[in-house]
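Q: Hi! First time doing this. I have a protein sequence and I read that you can turn it into a structure. Is that right? Here it is:
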Amino acid sequence: MSRTSVLQRGALAAAVIAAAAVSACSSGLLSDPQRPVASAKMVATQGNSVAGLVTFRRSGDQLSARVQLTGLPANSEHGFHIHEKADCTAPDGSSAGGHFNPSAMPHGPQGGARHAGDMPNLRADAQGRVDTTLMVGGVTAGGGAANDIVGRSLIVHAAPDDYRTQPTRSE
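A: Yes, that's right. Below is the predicted 3D structure, encoded as C-alpha cells:
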C-alpha cells in the first residue's frame, strides 16, 4: 500500500505519523456500501514508530471509532482529528489540511459546537498502546454528504488537544 491513498468505498487508507506536532496521519477513509464500516491504517512517518488501525462503525446517528495504536510514548495524551484531505505525503502531516469542518464551526469538544473532525483525545498506556472506542457525532461514513469522512485523513497529534485554541491549517 502506498503511503498516500484516498478513502474509497471498501476501507480506510494509509495513515502517517510525523515528529513534532503530528504523531499519526491516515491518508484516507474508505467505506464499504455492503457493511456499515470505514477504516484507516495508521502508518509512521520518518522518525516515528506509531502504527495501527482505526475502524468506524455506524451506531445510531453517530459513528463509533475503534482506535488501536502502538508506538506512542508511554502514558501520553494526543489530540485526534479528522482532517480535510486524504494526503499524508508531507513529513509533518500538513498535506492533510486543516481539521475537517464543513459547517464552519469553532474548535471544541464532543457535545458542544465543534469542527466535524474534532474527536476526543487519545491516551496511551504504559506500553505506548491505545485500544479504545470513541463515539463521534456529527459525521457520516459513505454516501457523499457534506459531513462524510470518506476521502479524509486521520491525524494523531504529538500533544493533547485543549479544545479551546483554534488550530492552524494542519494542527
